[in-house]
Design a protein that fits this description.
Blueprint lengths: L1 H16 L5 H6 L5 H13 L11 H13 L9 H15 L2 H11 L2
């Protein structure tokens, strides 16, 4: 019961946060490279770039970030806020807390 209430409250907060329209970023990204798009999305969501990867395998993180935030985020017509809402919902259901925390912060920009 508490879990459902938390998910409902979280969804309401995130839907409210979707009022910010980032469609200009989607239009601008048509002329950018995957690296530039990934850097811009990571800067907006998490205030980082692919250049300052931390972790045991920096090359893998760089490839992963460029693919997810530079390619997957450009497929379709969803704006970045809607993608983050869907990401937060998926991570909540899967109970992946470290990623959930980062994406909640990213969704509330």
């Amino acid at each position: 019961m508490i879990k459902k209430l938390c998910i409902t409250a979280l969804s309401s907060i995130l839907i409210s946060a979707l009022m910010i329209n980032l469609s200009a970023l989607a239009k601008e990204s048509k002329n950018m490279t995957r690296q530039e798009i990934a850097d811009k999305n990571l800067e907006i969501l998490f205030n980082i770039t692919t250049k300052n990867n931390n972790g045991p395998d920096k090359d893998f993180m760089n490839i992963l970030q460029k693919y997810i935030f530079g390619e997957v985020f450009t497929i379709g017509d969803l704006d970045i806020k809607t993608r983050e809402l869907l990401t937060v919902t998926s991570l909540t259901v899967m109970q992946t807390l470290p990623q959930l925390k980062a994406h909640i912060n990213g969704a509330l920009i």
